[in-house]
């Protein structure tokens, strides 16, 4: 690269993404004083020009090198290699990063990488005319303060800001006088300790890859930069081996814990750093003024003391109406498809344990969960629309008045909503969201009742029970389930705040963002992410638990004497069928009797299994709430994960099938079970709302508070759930 630089006092690089106006800026700065050359070692054509800074006798000529347009310094392409080699080998006095200011976040990624290298940097906010045309503004003073780099507004095609840009670069170069000050970004608790260890090793070993910061070398090795890795191996093989061993260890850890690689984590934290800057410096004065005025008019109705809650209840009800109306047909198709798959597998495979495992353990278990995917996806889509529009924040604002009555804080609304306050969330992030509460007492009370919400794991249970026992009224049932979860959480919170978690409430201040029109792409992304997480759990965790529960519901099986008795009954009926057919008589009644013997055998075998025995043992108490032994098995499995309730019921009803000629969806099987009436279904809904959180939530609660309170949640919630379920079942029986 040195062959391109003339004998002038200062060299300034000009970097930028493709199509950011960098070439136009280069022409504006250098005019006709430029020439073209080739980069040493690569087939990349570049340009270098000259410009004069200052005036009169104090003026000085500087070299300006137009670096290839690139999005990063990862050195994957020839352009990236050329740009990075120039920075490392030539060590320019300063670099001007020309940015499309209308896409500030994307353009800042290259700037951050240059800053991590330590090069003195000036930010040229180009295309500022386009920024203002789109109703935005950028606080350049704040951007300068946050990045430590002079930020200059420019319009390259008109030459606006070019002299200020050149002067800023010259003054920065003079001030730094060849000194590089690398930017240090935290890359999280997994990578920061590794980077510190790598930095110490590199510093102790001396120069490995030239005059570059040791931390930057460590980052590049973590990113898998082959160029830097090879140079380290050439310079010091022993040190390189130690560094690569550290990378391998942390890569294995990240893959196991986060299913991510070090370079992905680094990119995530970089973008997080960039987003934090962009959100502070990018303003929307014109657009926001109009939107805020519209938001204020809408809020006069949507957050009104009387109309607001009514509208909110209507919105939630409409979410469920749309979910069931749009999802009824696809849900039925998916459930019928799994029923057909189970029947086909049963016909294709020989009788035995393997067929039972595939049909009853895998297809019935996992199919029971996946059968609700269409409803789940529609519900997630609608809820994402409410979140992205800004309406969920209004819900929190309105409910603060109510929450104060029950000893909670307006901020408690947010954990409730995250945990499934409008269905489909997750209790784990809901519990973690209680960190936002400043009062320890309010945090603890919120943490203990947040799992009552209708999280995405509970939703399939409620959907299945609504479809089975309340056909045609599913939306109303789901709305009542949601309302019941909120009321239960508030009442229990009041009880806790009056007894074991006493303390004063703290004031609530919340800024309501302007309403925004959600984008279709954004809604689709959010819907897919949530739905895929649900489906992935069904194909991994739920599958594993379903297989284990199938084993518990299969072994040890019928005692030998009972198996012999059933064999004899089946043989006797079959003999009668054969005799009737030989005489040309109708045998349909006898065939039904044979099926009934098979159903009785399946049910007794299930009762004789380990899980069946436990379910039957619990039935001596659970019958007070209307729960039969099949439901007991499912509820015990639900302590691991609430989705398991549906999959376990699917396996239990498949193994001990109740007089069904063909394979049927779980909702139809439960509706046909005479031992489980509608009153029991109501009690089960109440129990699932209230009883102990899943195992992952319990661990999270322990981390956020203590194991004492986590164990309290398990025992107190389950006891409360059983008492409430008994009350509902016994009351409902009086009116049935």
Description of the molecule:
Among the domains are: 175 residues, 3-Layer(aba) Sandwich (Rossmann fold); 83 residues, Helix Hairpins, CATH 1.10.287. The N and C termini lie far apart (89 Å). Helices cover 65% and strands 6% of the residues. The N terminus is likely disordered. A seven-stranded mixed β-sheet has the order 2-3-4-1-5-6-8, sandwiched between helices. A two-stranded antiparallel ribbon has the order 7-9. The radius of gyration is 34 Å and the shape is elongated. The protein has 736 residues and is an alpha/beta fold.
Could you give a short description of this structure?
By secondary structure, the chain is α/β, with parallel strands linked by helices. It is 65% helix and 6% strand.
Write the layout of secondary structure elements.
Blueprint: E1 11-16, H1 22-30, E2 34-38, E3 45-53, E4 60-66, H2 78-90, E5 94-100, H3 104-117, E6 121-126, H4 128-133, E7 137-138, H5 140-147, E8 151-153, H6 162-176, H7 188-205, H8 214-222, H9 226-235, H10 237-257, H11 262-281, E9 282-283, H12 285-302, H13 307-348, H14 353-370, H15 373-389, H16 391-405, H17 413-421, H18 427-432, H19 440-449, H20 459-469, H21 474-498, H22 520-539, H23 541-552, H24 560-582, H25 588-608, H26 610-622, H27 629-637, H28 644-655, H29 666-671, H30 678-690, H31 695-704, H32 707-734
Helix pairs in contact: 3-11, 5-11, 7-8, 7-10, 9-10, 13-14, 13-15, 13-21, 14-23, 14-28, 15-22, 19-21, 20-21, 20-30, 21-30, 22-23, 23-28, 24-25, 25-26, 26-27, 27-28, 30-32, 31-32
């Amino acid at each position: 690269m040195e062959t391109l630089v003339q004998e002038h006092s200062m060299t300034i690089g000009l970097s930028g993404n493709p199509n950011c106006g960098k070439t136009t800026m280069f022409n504006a700065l250098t005019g006709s004083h430029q020439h073209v050359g080739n980069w040493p070692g690569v087939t990349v054509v570049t340009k270098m020009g000259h410009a004069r800074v200052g005036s009169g006798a104090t003026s000085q000529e500087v070299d300006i090198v137009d670096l290839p347009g690139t999005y990063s310094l990862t050195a994957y392409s020839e352009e990236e290699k050329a740009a990075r080699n120039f920075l490392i080998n030539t060590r320019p006095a300063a670099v001007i990063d020309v940015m499309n200011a209308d896409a500030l976040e994307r353009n800042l990624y290259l700037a951050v990488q240059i800053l991590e290298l330590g090069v003195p940097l000036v930010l040229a906010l180009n295309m500022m005319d386009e920024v203002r045309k789109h109703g935005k503004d950028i606080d350049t003073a704040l951007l300068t303060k946050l990045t430590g780099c002079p930020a200059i507004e420019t319009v390259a095609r008109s030459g606006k800001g070019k002299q200020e840009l050149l002067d800023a670069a010259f003054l920065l170069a003079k001030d730094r006088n060849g000194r590089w000050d690398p930017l240090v970004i935290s890359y999280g608790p997994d990578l920061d300790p590794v980077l510190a260890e790598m930095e110490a090793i590199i510093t102790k070993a001396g120069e490995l890859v030239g005059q570059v910061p040791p931390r930057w070398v460590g980052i590049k090795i973590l990113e898998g930069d082959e160029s830097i890795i090879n140079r380290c191996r050439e310079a010091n093989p022993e040190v390189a081996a130690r560094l690569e061993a550290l990378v391998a260890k942390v890569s294995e850890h990240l893959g196991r814990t986060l299913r991510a690689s070090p370079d992905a984590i680094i990119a995530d934290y970089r973008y997080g750093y960039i987003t934090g800057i962009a959100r502070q410096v990018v303003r929307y004065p014109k657009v926001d003024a109009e939107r805020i005025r519209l938001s204020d008019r809408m809020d006069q109705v949507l957050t009104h003391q009387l109309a607001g809650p009514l509208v909110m209840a209507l919105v939630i009800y409409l979410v469920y109406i749309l979910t069931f109306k749009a999802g009824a047909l696809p849900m039925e198709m998916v459930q019928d498809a799994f029923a057909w798959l189970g029947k086909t597998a049963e016909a294709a495979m020989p009788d035995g344990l393997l067929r039972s495992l595939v049909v009853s353990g895998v297809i019935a278990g996992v199919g029971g969960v996946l059968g609700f995917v269409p409803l789940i996806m529609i519900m997630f889509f609608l809820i994402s629309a409410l979140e992205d529009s800004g309406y969920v924040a209004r819900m929190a604002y309105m409910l603060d008045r109510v929450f104060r009555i029950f000893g909670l804080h307006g901020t408690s609304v947010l954990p409730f909503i995250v945990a499934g306050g409008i269905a489909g969330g997750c209790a784990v992030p809901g519990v973690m969201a209680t960190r936002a509460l400043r009062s320890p007492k309010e945090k603890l009370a919120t943490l203990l009742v947040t799992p009552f919400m209708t999280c995405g794991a509970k939703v399939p249970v409620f959907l299945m029970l609504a479809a089975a026992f309340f056909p045609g009224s599913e939306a109303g049932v789901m709305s009542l389930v949601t309302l019941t979860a909120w009321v239960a959480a508030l009442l229990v919170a009041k009880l806790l705040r009056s007894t074991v978690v006493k303390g004063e409430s703290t004031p609530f201040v919340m800024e309501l963002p302007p309403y925004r029109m959600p984008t279709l792409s954004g809604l689709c992304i959010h819907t897919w992410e949530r739905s895929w997480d649900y489906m992935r759990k069904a194909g991994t965790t739920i599958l594993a638990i379903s297989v284990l529960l199938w084993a518990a519901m299969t072994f040890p099986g019928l005692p030998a004497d009972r198996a012999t008795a059933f064999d004899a009954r089946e043989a006797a009926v079959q003999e009668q069928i054969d005799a009737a057919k030989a005489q040309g008589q109708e045998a349909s009644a006898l065939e039904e009797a044979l099926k009934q013997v098979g159903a009785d055998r399946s049910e007794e075998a299930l009762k004789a299994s380990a899980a069946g025995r436990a379910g039957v043992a619990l039935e001596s108490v659970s019958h007070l709430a209307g729960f039969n032994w099949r439901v007991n098995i499912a509820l015990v499995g639900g302590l691991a994960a609430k989705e398991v309730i549906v999959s376990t019921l699917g396996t239990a009803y498949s193994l001990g099938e109740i007089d069904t000629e063909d394979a049927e969806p779980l909702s139809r099987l439960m509706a046909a079970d005479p031992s489980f009436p509608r009153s029991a279904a109501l009690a089960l809904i109440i129990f699932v709302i209230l009883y102990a959180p899943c195992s992952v939530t319990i661990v999270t609660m322990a981390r956020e508070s203590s194991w004492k309170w986590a164990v309290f949640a398990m025992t107190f919630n389950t006891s409360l759930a059983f008492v409430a379920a008994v009350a509902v079942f016994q009351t409902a029986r009086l009116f049935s």
